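=== RUN LOG ===
request id: a7f3
mode: sequence -> structure
chains: 1
length: 205
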Amino acid sequence: MVLYGRHLGNGPSVYLYTDGCCLPEDRVGGWAFCVLTPNGAKHPHSGDLIPRYQRDWGGLRRTSNNRAELIAVIRGLKSLTAPTRVDLVTDSMYVIDGILNRLPKWKLRQWRTSSGSIRNASLWQQLDALLEIHAVTYRHVPAHSGNRNNELCDERARNAALQKQKQLAKKQKQLAKKQKQQAKEPQQLAKKQKQLAKATKKSAV
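=== RESULT ===
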């Protein structure tokens, strides 16, 4: 684990699990996070502390896997209402390597690289601002390695992506139907004009 951001001493601590995905066929994606607070209520029988869970997820119209991973972390940190000690658990080396190795260099270079602009710069800037608020440590878990909360985020992110894909397909179908109807309108208008002309000619006789 490596510390980044503020030093909060013995302030509140949470575990933040995140995941993002992208469906390769149409670049529709999803993100999900799970915030686990260890010091929840006590179990009425055993007396053990019951962790509190806060979860959220959503779909993305056009994205990449890396963007979805970043958005998941940003959404998770934004859900925290006060400066917090956060143990971020993710399967994305893109996120961890970016935070620990690339982010400090990007900031020194005014968010530029030797080859030009930074990919996903606006997301990295949002994440950087959040890292100034919270004290964050990082833990990498391999994808699909059996970590319960990571698997849960993976499932929610993928379901959100599939749901978004269905919504977009439905909208596309509705748009195609509307365009088809609009294409018929000139023909319908010409038919009505022809009928009107015929009726006018007949009445004149």
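=== NOTES ===
Residues 4-172 form a domain with the Nucleotidyltransferase; domain 5 fold (CATH 3.30.420.10).
Helices lie at 65-78, 93-108, 121-131, 148-204.
=== END ===
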